[in-house]
Design a protein that fits this description.
The protein is α+β, with helices and mostly antiparallel strands and 69 residues long. The chain has helices at 16-20, 49-58; strands at residues 3-6, 25-27, 33-35, 64-67. 22% of the residues lie in helices and 20% in strands.
Length: 69
């Protein structure tokens, strides 16, 4: 199972990932991404993998990563 990981030391809460992947991420009150299912690293359904890859590519701080197969 592929999971979405946020590197909190690199993230600056710009919100690009929450706009590109609203099914898995939502902004908190400061603009930092949080999982919509309140897990630390949300599982990425196969149907959302292309969208998750796009969010990873477009993260300006390179703080978003896909982990797993």
């Amino acid at each position: 199972m592929t999971r979405l990981h946020v590197d909190w030391t690199a993230c600056q809460g710009r919100g690009h990932c929450t706009e590109l992947l609203p099914e898995l991420l939502a902004p908190d009150e400061w603009g930092y991404p949080r999982s919509t299912d309140d897990t630390k690293e949300p599982a990425v359904p196969v149907a959302l993998l292309p969208h998750a890859r796009r969010a990873v590519r477009h993260c300006p701080r390179l703080a978003l990563h896909l982990v797993g197969p």
